[in-house]
Amino acid sequence: MNLRQNILTVSQISGKIKQTLEQNFEQVSVIGEISNFKAHFSGHWYFTLKDESSQISCTMWKGVNSSVFFTPDDGMKIIVTGKISVYTPRGNYQIDVRSMQPAGEGELQAAFEKLKKKLSSEGLFDLQYKKAIGRFPEKIGIVTAGDGAAFKDMISVASRRYPLVQLVLRSSKVQGLGAAAEIARAIEELNRTDVDVIIIGRGGGSLEDLWAFNEEVVARAIFDSVIPIISGVGHEVDFTIADFVADLRAPTPTAAMELATPDVEDIINFVEEFAEDAFVNLMDKISSASKELDNLIKSYGFRIPENMILTKTQMLDNLFYRIENHMHSKQQQIKNKVVLFTKILESFDVNKTLKRGFTLTKQNNAVLKRSSDFIKGENVTIRFYDGEVQINND
Amino acid sequence: MTKKREKFEDLLKRLQEISDQLESEDIGLDDSIQLYEEGIKLSELCHKKLKEAELKITELKSELGKELEN
């Protein structure tokens, strides 16, 4: 018996082991708890799966691990499916993981609680960091699936409530493969625009569907956003890590849009009320001003000029009266004089003289006042008190 | 349009201001009338804006491609 015939080199035995293991364990599913999880810079994942008494190394390559919807973490119980591969340079075997899922919903729940506790202790949920949401946004950034029902609902809410607004969609995957990273990226990119507020959200789904919103990378992006963020993920009952970090949590995407926008009806009411109230106010002002004016005019100060006028009028009236009186007596005097003169005149009355026997001699109707007035040969008329006598001097 | 668009929020804010001022006692009649005129113009503008408003939707494309080019 030649012992040497059975002697193998290290490489030979390693090769045989590799062949044996890899052929017999082409597809295995293993349940265990993650420990020493490392996401390498290269994109590959390295970790150990263990139970109470054993452990096995695992690798999950970049490109394969991007289909995992959650970020694995130490302590999480998972089921991995893959094949056994042997790495001969180090003489160890490992599971080459093809897919991975949590061992139960409880695992996700536990991961949720763990991350929540961690972020909470870091202060990411603190009220002091919550930013106020403006009442009248001009632009609303939206991170959701552009072809999803949630986005359509948000559009209809916005156009009903506040059509003045502009919606800026940064479409993103919201579940599965790479969703969390894309959501985080979308938030960052919207932070480089002039939107007033960002809504992140999606419609309802299972815990697994909503999981992207429970990822740390999303939570950090929300916390780092300088623009206020409203989260609206799933239904009323669904709480995600994103909800805790967001500046405002809405129960649904629709509700998020309602919180982000004022109601146009309210504004119209306000504007209409203004027109009414302002008019009434103005009318009040005018009537009180006119009352004030009345009062002023009736006040003592304003009565002074009026009184002065009255006094002056009275004085004037008095003067007129006096002038009138004066005039009247003047008239009387004149009248008296006229009577006197009439009497005097009467005393010069020609008739009275004629009665006493004097006559008037006229030629050609002119009274002859002196002898030189007499014209020879001309007819003479002599006027007596009781008539005239014609003397012809032919 | 070259004219800078007034922020709707600012219009409403001014309208609220005017409303408050008109309600206050210590404002003169002349000022009141001026404020009233301004307010009515503003409220008509607001109305017009609201009536004519149409929701605008734009899409922000991912910057991923841009960065890969660098």
Q: Can you give keywords for this protein?
A:
heterodimer, A: 394 residues, alpha/beta, OB fold (Dihydrolipoamide Acetyltransferase, E2P), Rossmann fold, 5-stranded mixed beta barrel, B: 70 residues, mainly alpha, 3 helices, 66% helix
Could you characterize what this model shows?
The complex is a heterodimer of chains A (394) and B (70). The radius of gyration of chain A is 63 Å and the shape is rod-shaped. With 394 residues, chain A is of the alpha/beta class. In chain A, 43% of the residues lie in helices and 22% in strands. Chain A folds into three domains: 3-103, OB fold (Dihydrolipoamide Acetyltransferase, E2P), CATH 2.40.50.140; 112-262, Rossmann fold, CATH 3.40.50.2300; 350-391, no CATH class. In chain A, a hairpin with a 4-residue loop joins strand 2 (45-50) and strand 3 (55-60). In chain B, helix 1 packs antiparallel against helix 2. Chain B is mainly α. Helix content of chain B is 66%, strand content 6%. Chain B is elongated and about 55 Å long. Chain B contains three helices and one strand. Classes of the chains: A alpha/beta (394), B mainly alpha (70). The A-B interface holds A 134-136, 138, 141, 146, 155, 158-159, 163-171, 182, 185-186, 189-190, 193, 264, 267-268, 270-272, 274-275, 277-279, 281-282, 285-286, 289 and B 7-9, 12, 15-16, 18-19, 22-23, 29, 32-33, 35-36, 39-40, 43, 46-47, 49-50, 53-60, 62-64. Strand 7 of chain A pairs parallel with strand 1 of chain B, so a sheet runs across the interface.
